[in-house]
Structure formats: C-alpha cells, structure tokens
Amino acid sequence: MKIVNVTHGSFYAIGAYAAASMTAAWLAHGYPPMLSYAVLVVAAIVVAAPFAILIERVILRPLYSRDEVVILLVTYALFLILEDVVKLIWGVNPYFIAEPYALLGSFQVAGMAYPTYNLILVAVALFFGGGLAWLLHSTRAGKLLLAVIHDPEVSRAMGVNVGRYYLATFALGSLLAALAGAFTAPTVSVVPGLGVEVIVLSFAVVVIGGLGSLPGAAVGAVMVGLVRSLSVHYMPQVELFVIYFVMAVVLALRPRGLFSLAEPRKI
Amino acid sequence: MKQGRIRRDHTVAIAFAVFVLLAALGPWLPQWAMFIMTVAVARGLVVLGLLLLLRAGLVSFGQALFYCLGAYSAGALGRFFGISDIFVEMLVGGAVAAATAFVLGFLLARYRGIFFGLLSLALSMILYGLLVKSEALGSTDGFNILPSTLFGVRPGPDWVRYAVLVSAAAVALVAALAVHRYLNTPLGRLAPAIKDNEIRVEYMGASARRAVHVKYVIAGGLAGVGGALAATVVGHIDPEMAYWTTSGEFIFIAILAGTGNVIAPFVGALIYGAIHTMAYDLSPNTWQMTLGVALLLLIVFLPSGLWSAFSRFRWR
Amino acid sequence: MSFGNRLAVVALTALAAAAAAPSALAQNVKIGIVAFISGPAAAPFGVPAKNAADFVIDELNAGRGPAPYDKKGFGGATIETVVVDEAGSTTTQVTEFRNLVQRHNVDLVIGYISSGNCLAIAPVAEELKKFTNFFDCGTPRIFEDAAYKYVFRTSPTATMDSVGAALYVRDARPNIKSIAGLNQNYAWGQDSWGDFELAMKVLVPNLEVKTSQMPKLFAGQYNAEISALLGAKADVIHSSFWDGDLEALILQGGPRGLMKSSLTILTTGETAMHKLGAQIPDGTVLGARGPFGPFAPDNAYNKWFAAGFEKRFNAPANYASYQMAQAILGVKLAWEKAQAAMGGGTTAGGKRPTNEQVAAALENMTFEGPGGTVRMAIGKGHQAIMETAYGTTRLANGKLTLVNVKRYPAEKVNPPEGVKSADWIKNGFKQN
C-alpha cells in the first residue's frame, strides 16, 4: 500500500497484551487450558480490529492525498499515542501466560529439549503466509487489491471501491501484526515497549526479502532468524548488529531486495 | 523569477535578524530556556542536512550515525587529547562525519526510496552495536564530556549557557546561509528534479548519483556538527545517539518543519523540543500520548510542514 | 501575520509557560523525584520506587515515621514532590533535570535508576549546585571516576552484587570448576558479568569460563541462548537479567531444565519472586541487590515500611522500593542534622538548611533504614555500603521460600575508600 506504517508495532503490542490478559483471565476462571489457543486468536482479533478500523477511517483516510512522508509521520504520532493507551489499559506490569507454551511440552532433538510450541508456530506462520498468498493471487478480491495498490486512480476509474480496499488492507495487515503478538505472548513476558523493536526487525525482513514480495518476506524472515541463532552460537559478540549487517550486505548486492518484483516506472 | 529573488532576500535578512535578536535578548532568557534552545539548534543542524536530502526525495533513517560520530569525536577530543574548545569540537565532529559520509556515499548514492532509508538505518544501527560492545567507551553508559571552553576561556557558570547558545547560533547561521546559497547553485537545484524524475535528469547530462553523493556528504557533515554541539551542551554521550529512534526524531522534525526554507528546521526543532518538555511537565504519566496528539494536530493542520503556515500568510 | 510576529508568539508562549510553573509554598520542601514510570523499566523498578516515595513521604508528612524519623516531613515542613519520568534519551533527562532545578526550583532531587543517566546528571547537578541523591544506578564509576560535593548515592553499587554472588556460589559449590553467563548486552549486563567473572577467577584458581551469552536487551526470546547454555554444561550460570527478560528466562529456561542442570544464580531475581514464585525451580539462587525484601532485617523500620507498603499497594515492596525508602530517610536525617546545627528551629519556621549544609551533613553519615545499616563510607563519604545476602529457593506448601540464606558483611563485598572496584577484585578483595 506504499505506506511505511510505524503503527504496525503498536498492533503487535496490542495483540500481545490482549491475548495475554484475556488468556490469563480465561485460565484463572478455570476454563479448559487447551482452548486457550483459541482465546489467543480471538482476543487479538477482537481487540485490534476496532483500533484498526478507527485509525484507518478517522485518521488515515483524510491524509492519503498527501505526501507519503506525511503518512509516515502520522503513523509515528499514532504509535506514540498507542504506547500510552496500551499503558493506560493494561498497566506497566509484565503479563505472562505460561500455560499455552508449557502445555504442548517439548520433544528431543539432537540431545536437547525443544518446545513443541515453537514448531507449531512455524506451521502457523506457513499457514498464514500461504493463505495470504492464495488470497492475493487466486481470489478476485486479492487481484483487485493488487490492482488498487499499483494504481489507485485507474482502479477507481474502473469502478473499484478503493476506500474499502484500503481499509481492508490496513485492517488485515494490522490484524496479522496483532496475531503475531498474540502468538508470541506465551513465550515472552509482555512488557511496555514490546512494539518498538519489532518494527525495525519487520522492516528489515521486508527489505531483505524485497518489497511487495510474499515469498521474499518468508525467506527474509527465515534468514533473519537463522542468522541470529547462528551468531548466538558461534559469534556471540556480533549478535547485536548482525541483522543490520546482513541487511546492508543484501542491499549492497541486490539493491531492491532478494525477490524484488520488476516494477514498471512511469517516465 | 521576481518572486524567487524576493524569497532569497527575505531568508538572509530573517536569519540575521533572528541571530541578532537572540544575541541581544539572550542574557534575559531563563537558563533552562537557553538550554532547550541550544539543543534545538543542534537538532536543527541535523535536520538542515535532512532538508537537503528530502528535497531530492530521499529520506535518510540513519542521520543518527553522523550525529553520534560527531558526538563521540567531540568526546574523544576531550578524553584523549584534553581539548574542550567548542568550535574545534564542532569542526572535528563535522569533519569526521563528512569523511564517513563520503565513504559510505559510494554505496548509498545508488539507492532510492525506502531502500535508501533502511540501508542508512542499518549502517547507523551497526555503529550502535559497535559502540555498545566497546567497554572502553563505556558501552551503553557512555561517558562525560569536558565542559566547553571558547577560544581557551571557560565561561563562568552564569554566562556559559549564553555563550554556548550564541556560539551555536553563529555556527547555525553560517550553515543555514551556506545551504541556502548551495540550493541556488545548479547542483542544488537538481534536488527537486531528482525527486520528480531521475531518468530525465540523467538524460539531460547531469549525474544524479554525484548530486546525491554530494548532498549526502553535506548532510552527514551537518549532522556531525550538530552531534558535537549536542554532546558539549548535554555534557554526556552514549550509543543511543546512534539508535534509530534518534533518527526518527530528526525525520519527524524535518517533515514537521517542511522543506520550504533553511530556517524552518531550527524553528521545527525548537517547537518539537518545547512540546516534548511541556508534555513531560503536564502529564508525566502519559507524556507520550500528549506528544503524539500535539504532533498529530500539527500535521493535520499544517499539511506542508510548519513553514506553510508562514508562507501561506505571506502571499496574501 | 509576518514571520517576526510568529516568532514572537512562540517565544512569549514559552516564557509564559515558564512563568506558569507553580512556585512552592515558601514553607514546603520541594523534592524532585525521577524514576521510570513508562517503558520496560517501570514495572520492576520505577513504579515500585515511586510508590515507595509516595508511601514514605505521606507517612513522614503525617509524622508517622519511626524514630528518629518521627519529625513531620523534613524538619517540620511538609514535603511536596515533582515527579519526572526517567524514560527518554539522556538529552531529555538532562533537559528535565535542568527544568526541575531552574524552572520548578526544587530544593533537592532524589532519583535515577539508569546508570547512564546517573553519569550524565552528576556533573550537571554539580554545575547547578543542587543536592542530588541517586537512589539506584548500578555503576561504581560515578564516584570512582570523579569527586562530587552535591551528589550522593545511598545504595551500594552493582559490584557488591557480583562479588556477593561469587562468594555465595563458591560457598555453595566448593568444587566448582566452570561458569557460564547469560547477561544483557549493555553496560549493566557487561559490568555484572565482568565483575562476577573476575571475582570467581580470584576465588577459584583454574576456573573455566564455558560461555558468556550476551543477548540484546529486551530480546525476550532466549531459546538459542538456553540451548547454548545447556550444551555448555557449566557448574554455575550467572545472570543479571531483570523484569521481562528475567521472567522470560524463568519461563523459557525452567521447563527446559536449565536451573536443574547448572546452579543458576539470578542476582536481581527478587523482583520475580512475587509474581512467578511457583515457576522458579527449586535450587535457584536469588539476590535482591542488598539486604532488601526477603533479606531485610527484622527492625522497626522494616516492620513499618514493609507492612505499610503492602497494605497500601497490595503488593510486597521490592528492592527498588527499599532503595527509594532509605534514600528519602537518609536525606531527611541529613536535613534535620543540618538544621540542628543551624541552631534549631523548624523549616516551616524559616530555618532552611542550604544544599551545602545538607551535603556536609550526609557525608560519612551512618543511618538505619528498612534494609538495615547504611554507611556512607566510600567515594569520599558520598557512596553508601551495606551488607548483602543471597538465598536458595525452595517451594514449600506452594509458597516460595528462601533457604540457606547467607549474609556477607559490607567490608567483604564493597571496595575500600579510594580503590576502584575492578582493581580491588583483581587484588583479591584486600581491605587495607
């Protein structure tokens, strides 16, 4: 959508907090722990959706006609506001929900115990990635969305309701961020400032993979994760900035990212 | 043509007027206000460089790299050489940063759009990582800078804020006017052309890449000077100066101020600093929200940045 | 409106804001309190510290403090506070400190948790001649690298935590042969591990360091590091993690058996005790950065503070709360001592000691607080030393208790006057 969206990180945090607090309440009431996974998903969607719709309709929509950088600015201001909104709603204390993580137990790999939850997360990521790709390329709505992104004016001239597509895209993107936060919540302690780091990392992944390319994002994510884990094991000193180093190297060799799409330019 | 000439005259005159006003009124301003203004001048210098790049359509998310380099150069001067002259610090900071920008520019000048932005961010984060690793430089705790001297004289405690502010404003005046001159040279005028349509620029025989490289070096140098100044004013440097959130602040001020005029970055930085500190004062529990709301309102009501508020009224 | 007018408006607004800053009632004592009330450091340190400040100040203002803190407020005058969030860059913090001193005209400042901020603020406090008491920070650099007249710290440095940890571990596992570390990759983590490693090498000849994992601050995900540590199979694992990272470590490492495979010592583990009690595996060693929380002595001050705090905030006081409490109490005592030296009278009655007089009173002072004895013994009388304690966890009837608690006297875990912490450790902890 050609928006550099800083609020993405806020949605990650909102999803994590919503999931953590609702799951904690669910478990405290003694409901079946196995259903807590569903609670994670539902909580994230239910809480994040109104935020997404409100933000897109009220704040972003009037500003689409302006320069791209203005939108960046607006999302940054929104990010600041949402940080404190999250703090006001959920407080500063860390939330933790250990059960969804511990319930699935662990399995043995190469003499070490590895949590099953993490493996399931990989499967979930593949599911969502694949689902999104299918949505974009195989459904009519998805193809229309690609058209809208490429040229909103012509799309509008062809009778497509561009406004609704923008809303849907923003909402979908934000919900995915919220879900990511929700799925990560059981593995970490949910604290203020959760959304900050994730923004830069996700931009790094997108840039490494190539803008607008879904398989690129997947490859980028795997690369980032692998590089980090490898550096932890073999060269802990560089762990801090190795991601950025990789980003710089990838961009130096492939200036538009690994899987960049050929972009027609207007002269 | 006639309009362009009027605009240039106004800028030089206004810049000098502001400087004189500051120098005259300075001793009557409260110390804390002078501190905030000096920090605004430092930030304004960085944003001035960003203005150059923004005009060419390039958003650099990594100016913090040069800001930090400038700051650490100033700190190193004090720590390893015992030098604390404020002008020397700014000069060395700017030079080190400009030299680095020259080298990095060979890589960066090829990129546009978000790739330029994120590559510059990556480079600045690499510096951050290196500094955090360096326990000799204090890692994340950083270290303190010697109190400033001007031409060998250390101003007394009552005058130091004023002296530093006027020195900083003088440097800013020179920088702003220099950039203003540059913008009217052929290379400077290339910026909006590159932003609009780079292929046509190349077709007409100019090198977009070289222009971008030059602008990047100037922007880097300015950021280095700003960093050195900020370091001496605050008295402390740490790696967070290279963190991407610092770059984010500069970008914010840059877009807020708009690219209309070379004075705008300083005004924008001052307003940002004022709102920031007022937010801390009024709502210590929710200052982020106050800051965000204030900035949102400014964006919504001033579409092309703060400067549009001035220019809108001028052409009446 | 021309540009000039606009500029004037902006300038005037700023000045108006300055004039609008509330001035204190002449007879009140205005204290600036600085702590993290937003961001990740808020929950474990900033908010408990601010709560402690609120509690202690309210009690003091009502004259309910235990003797010798029973005089109302500071020397009879009511205490009022100005709170500043410690979040933001050092530039912001220095700006806000100057605002506190020059715009709000506070009488003194008590605050600062982050070592970086303490280092930056100390020279500014000295420049502005404002009495400042750092209640937390970890770094020993403040008074080792420079001497100050107006700056104090009423809590021990982080060196004490690392040396105490080394002593405890050596006592618990006399046959220890190897260590490993998991610390956050910034000054606090680097220094904590550095001091611990140095101390262990002095205590145990031929010690092997298997690995030192240094993940990014707030990384949140430590599976890779935990795998590396499990593979290293060291006798002892040292970690100075705090808040979310600490909780994540416990939640991720516990189920994977990390604490069982090596003796794990968490130097700031006390903050996780209350929330995560049941999740901490037995046999984990916890510290509270001094004789605070579960290690606090059973004296009148602790009885008053711990019970009152828990009653008001429905949560037990953690070490940050204790540090803030003793910071305020120490300054109160110094203020009143200075006032007495002026010939008696009360602050409300106009007898207000200057910052210089309060500073002179606090120098080299010894006082009692909820954590026990505080002696301002090093850093030319500006830096406090205390004893420290560590204990091992054991779950009893579903409640987390600490067994095998060992206390180490102040001289064993703090360097002597004039000796840098690193040198002191290297020379075998000599207390000439």
SSE topology:
The complex is a heterotrimer of chains A (267), B (316) and C (432).
Chain A: H1 7-28, H2 36-60, H3 68-90, H4 99-103, E1 106-109, E2 112-115, H5 116-138, H6 140-150, H7 152-157, H8 162-184, H9 194-209, H10 214-234, H11 242-253
Antiparallel strand pairs in A: 1-2
Chain B: H1 2-25, H2 31-55, H3 63-81, H4 86-108, H5 113-133, E1 143-144, H6 160-183, H7 186-196, H8 198-203, H9 208-234, E2 236-237, H10 244-257, H11 264-282, H12 287-301, H13 306-314
Antiparallel strand pairs in B: 1-2
Helix pairs in contact in B: 1-6, 2-6, 2-7, 2-9, 2-10, 2-11, 3-4, 3-5, 3-9, 4-9, 7-9, 10-11, 11-12
Chain C: H1 3-20, E1 29-35, H2 42-61, E2 79-85, H3 90-103, E3 108-111, H4 115-128, E4 132-134, H5 141-145, E5 151-153, H6 158-172, E6 178-182, H7 187-203, E7 208-213, H8 223-232, E8 236-239, H9 243-253, H10 258-261, E9 263-266, H11 270-276, E10 285-287, H12 300-313, H13 319-341, H14 355-362, E11 366-369, E12 372-378, E13 383-385, E14 388-396, E15 399-408, H15 410-413, H16 421-426
Parallel strand pairs in C: 1-2, 1-3, 3-4, 4-5, 6-7, 6-8, 8-9, 9-10
Antiparallel strand pairs in C: 10-14, 11-12, 12-13, 14-15
Q: Name the poorly predicted regions of chain B.
A: 312-316
Main sheet summary of chain B: 2 strands, antiparallel
Spatial gap, N to C terminus of chain B: 18 Å
* Mean model confidence by pLDDT of chain B: 84
Basic shape of chain B = globular
**Structural class, from helix and strand content of chain C?**
alpha/beta
Q: What sort of overall outline of chain C do the alpha carbons produce when their principal axes are compared? A: globular
Helix content of chain C: 40-55%
Number of helices of chain B: 13
Largest sheet of chain C: 7 strands, mixed
- Kindly provide the radius of gyration of chain C, computed on alpha-carbon positions and rounded to a whole number of angstroms: 22 Å
